[in-house]
Design the sequence.
């Protein structure tokens, strides 16, 4: 059974059809790319998958413990609790909080002490907080951000903000991670590092990743399967080699080789 | 094992005791004239109000203009219970009753209104506090428009001081817990927060209810100090007064709220001799300060952030 299966998904904004009749499957441990020209509806699709938008038609099913769960109309925080996490195209960190706190926020859903315990600072509070911080630091170490744990997120350089966003998403312990243009604004050197990082995350945490990206070197290099979106419709899907030579994709997005 | 009994908390306890002793000796030694004592109690009550509102506005980012409404619930509950039991027990019972009613009302207010954002939320909460005021004005048990009088004077400086300390501890412990961090993340970016698994509605409501309950305590202390309660005391302007303290002290700064309540209280007091132009000067003072410190006295910093580096708390894992 695929981890995520999307069937006939459609989103209309009044008269405008942003996504129509989208079918998609993501298997366990897969690295899938989603590409297409600006305005093709990639982010809209992400927003539906993560619960920010409610689909107009169609279904999204996520497999948890071998049972399919319908995600349509479920609130984003519950979807995250089921095991889907995301990053944002325009970085959305908690800017005035420290790097460590940003990661801790994503761990809040598993917090095991109540408000009264927090107010009275019972021993359980200290125990949980220390355990949480330790886990968060381990995660930050993987992302090479451990030295900056005390810095405010807004003071990090751009590339590290992107990394922190991925680290924060990973703190929510997802089975499926959505990355919305993780390499946007990065130089080739940073992009290469990011490519390695994404592959590393997938192998280390045994998760599936769906990523939107415009940087073809990253997409073709990294993704095992690619979906191409144009005017809200899937126009092609397959392995990178197929996509590269697909005529419709070249016309709509990749362009002719000169 | 880490616990409450650290060197740091011991130092805080000593600092708090010293501040308390200074004031208490000055008051019981009659070194402070009576008019100033009223000002001190008023400042104390304003501190509690501002701390509660700061949790809602400064930390959780929900713009509420209904704080006076919750204060009035606390004040009237205490006054009504005190009429039957005119002693300290009565005050505490009244306080608990007030907090319970406030919690319920705050929940009822929060669930529909906290879906709104920014200006819309402000208008909705303002409307709710007016509803509370008008309800009080028209109920028999609250004495209608004439209000309640002959409330025993039980609020003393030590009592107010204890409640200030409790309020600070409650909010401080809350915002430094996972639940409090969740509230701050709502202020920072609600969409990201929701995407990270935070039930934003729950945390907004939680902050709103805790803030409202603190206002209720402040109301009870107010009722047991000023003999009379009138519905007009808890109008729109009272909410604005508290808002001014929060903004002036700095959104998301507890020490800022405390300092702002004290500074504004002192400005108010010194201006009392110019009664005709008092409000004009008060407003001018606020304008001047806000022009020069738009982020408030402390911004989002705390007083401890200004201490030398080596005294600052290590936030790392230990």
Sequence:
């Amino acid at each position: 059974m695929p981890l995520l299966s999307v069937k006939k998904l459609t989103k209309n904004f009044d008269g405008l059809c942003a996504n129509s009749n989208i079918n998609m499957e993501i298997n366990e441990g897969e690295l899938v790319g989603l590409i297409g020209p600006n305005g093709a509806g990639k982010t809209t699709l992400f927003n539906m998958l993560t619960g920010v938008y409610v689909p107009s038609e169609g279904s999204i099913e996520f497999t948890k413990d071998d049972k399919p769960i319908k995600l349509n109309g479920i609130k984003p925080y519950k979807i995250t609790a089921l095991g889907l996490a995301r990053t944002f195209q325009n970085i959305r960190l908690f800017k005035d909080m420290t790097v460590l706190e940003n990661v801790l926020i994503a761990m809040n859903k598993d917090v095991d002490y109540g408000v009264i315990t927090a107010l009275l600072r019972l021993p359980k509070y200290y125990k949980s907080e220390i355990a949480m911080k330790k886990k968060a630091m381990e995660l930050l170490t993987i992302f090479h951000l451990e030295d900056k744990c005390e810095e405010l997120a807004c003071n990090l350089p751009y590339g590290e903000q992107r990394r922190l966003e991925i680290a924060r998403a990973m703190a929510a312990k997802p089975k499926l991670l959505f990355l919305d243009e993780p390499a946007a604004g990065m130089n080739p050197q940073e992009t290469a590092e990011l490519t390695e990082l994404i592959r590393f995350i997938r192998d280390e945490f045994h998760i599936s990743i769906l990523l939107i990206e415009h940087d073809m070197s990253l997409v073709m290099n990294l993704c095992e399967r690619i979906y191409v979106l144009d005017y809200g419709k899937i126009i092609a899907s397959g392995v990178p080699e197929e996509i590269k030579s697909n005529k419709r994709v070249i016309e709509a997005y990749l362009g002719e080789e000169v | 094992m880490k616990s409450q009994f650290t060197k740091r908390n011991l130092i805080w306890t000593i600092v708090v005791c010293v501040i308390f002793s200074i004031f208490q000796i000055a008051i019981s030694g009659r070194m402070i004239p009576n008019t100033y004592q009223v000002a001190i109690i008023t400042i104390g009550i304003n501190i509690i109000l501002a701390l509660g509102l700061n949790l809602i506005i400064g930390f959780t980012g929900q713009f509420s203009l209904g704080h006076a409404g919750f204060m009035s619930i606390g004040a009237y509950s205490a006054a009504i219970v005190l009429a039957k039991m005119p002693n300290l027990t009565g005050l505490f019972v009244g306080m608990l009753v007030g907090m319970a009613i406030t919690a319920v009302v705050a929940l009822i207010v929060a669930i529909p209104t906290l879906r709104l954002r920014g200006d819309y939320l402000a208008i909705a909460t303002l409307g709710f506090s007016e509803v509370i005021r008008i309800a009080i004005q028209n109920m028999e048990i609250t004495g209608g428009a004439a209000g309640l009088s002959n409330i025993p004077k039980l609020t003393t400086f030590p009592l107010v001081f204890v409640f200030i300390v409790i309020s600070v501890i409650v909010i401080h412990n809350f915002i430094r817990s996972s639940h409090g961090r969740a509230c701050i993340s709502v202020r920072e970016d609600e969409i990201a927060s929701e995407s990270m698994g935070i039930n934003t509605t729950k945390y907004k409501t939680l902050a709103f209810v805790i803030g409202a309950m603190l206002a209720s305590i402040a109301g009870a202390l107010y009722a047991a100090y000023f003999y009379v309660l009138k519905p007009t005391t808890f109008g729109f302007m009272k909410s604005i007064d508290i808002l001014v303290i929060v903004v002036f002290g700095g959104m998301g700064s507890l020490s800022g709220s405390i300092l702002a309540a004290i500074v504004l209280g002192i400005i108010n007091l010194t201006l009392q001799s110019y009664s005709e132009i008092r409000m004009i000067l008060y407003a001018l003072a606020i304008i001047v300060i806000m022009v020069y410190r738009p982020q408030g006295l402390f911004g989002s910093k705390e007083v401890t952030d200004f201490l030398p580096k080596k005294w600052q708390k290590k936030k790392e894992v230990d």
